[in-house]
């Protein structure tokens, strides 16, 4: 089966921070897991380069918008290998192929009768690049997200007849209750639609940085229509000379942050319906990484928590964490400490605690001592003994459990299911105390059994954990002489392992 997962495409007018890395890491975990299941996977990420915020940022810096995006896009392109993201393509909305396809699809929407000309008058937030309805106004006509004053806009626009899709969208939510996940976000999308949909601007005529409207050269498309279409357009040119649309469309999962729910769960399916294209299967909405904001008002002893963002000055720099602790530690931390689908606080102090207690101790130590014991007691050769049946039952259930959880993008419980096995194995070591067995020649067969079971279970854990921590599990599986990653092989099988190599600490203490 094909599996197509996407991240939002990132605005290039600011440097990447951990909030951006977060969606990418999550999508990468899903893509890697699905590859382990033998699915035909495509994983897309990229940058959103048009629109007023970019045009304004360029103006401030005395650059043309194209110069600005060409300078900034590489920061996001370079982030991907640093995160060990296995994306199959990186889309930029300034790619000429994307732009041509946007014009084609939006012309089709017009040909289908869903576009008309009118005058937009209302509130607009240039930072969100979003027209605000009355229900979305903060006090004194401010943006609820940015807390900055909104602009009153009046301009000639083409409109997209969003209101005509209200019933279709409600029907979609009725028929596909997992179209929007998790449930509380489904409810949010539903109530937004039920509150009544207004038509939305499809074009802008007060600036020129965007995809030109093919039927009227005074207009460019509103950036969100251009941006959303990346998920569809990229498939047509990601592989030169090949069109992957048939193979991968519709997308299996769009992963997005909660601030862009309206665009993905209302505008996007309506646009696709208007164009006569199939709808994605799931939109999974994750929460925000929150961080204590510098200088923000404190609530008792606790500093106020704010969405991590450049403008709040409370950003964790992913590059810095990677330099100091490695990519896997960053990936693990993001997926472990914040429940996927909810907001969660992150901090450098908490990162250090988890690095030490879970990565260095729980997992790193388990791997090191298991490998070391096979070397110390059996000259580096895993004994070909019958495996411990009770342990095998507990370990073998994990891959099915994991697959079911990841089908629902439940990355947090997925990781937890694996971690329970890591902890179980640490208890197993303590219970069996191989160092005691080694002292008694009458226990040699039992020691064989314990070492064989432990090493094999460690291999299984390495395979299961690979999507979260490809680097360290890769090293571990290599040392065990069993680099295969298929999920099917993630069960305890006697006699697979032979001579194993020594292993450097996976997570050195800091
Ligand atoms: N360009 C649009 C998306 C277009 S998709 C067709 C955009 N870009 S963004 O760079 O502002 O945000 C990209 C993603 O990063 C969003 O999903 C947003 O929720 C996420 N995050 C930005 N800061 C975040 C946190 N502090 N925490 C978690 N994710 C957040 O929106």
Counting structural domains, the number is: 3
Low-confidence stretches: 296-302
Strand arrangement, largest sheet? 3-2-1-13-14-9
Please state the CA-atom Rg, rounded to the nearest Å: 26 Å
Tell how many strands the DSSP assignment holds: 19
CATH topology of the largest domain: Rossmann fold
Please, how many helices?
Answer: 18
What is the top-level CATH class of the largest domain?
Answer: Alpha Beta
Largest sheet features:
6 strands, parallel
Q: List each distinct ligand once.
A: 5'-O-[(L-methionyl)-sulphamoyl]adenosine
Q: Classify the helix fraction into a percent range.
A: 40-55%
Secondary structure category: alpha/beta
Task: Just name the CATH architecture of the largest domain.
Answer: 3-Layer(aba) Sandwich
Average pLDDT: 93
CATH superfamily of the largest domain: HUPs
From the N-terminal CA to the C-terminal CA, the straight-line distance is: 43 Å
Spatial shape: elongated
Strand content: 15-25%
Q: Give me the oligomer status.
A: single chain
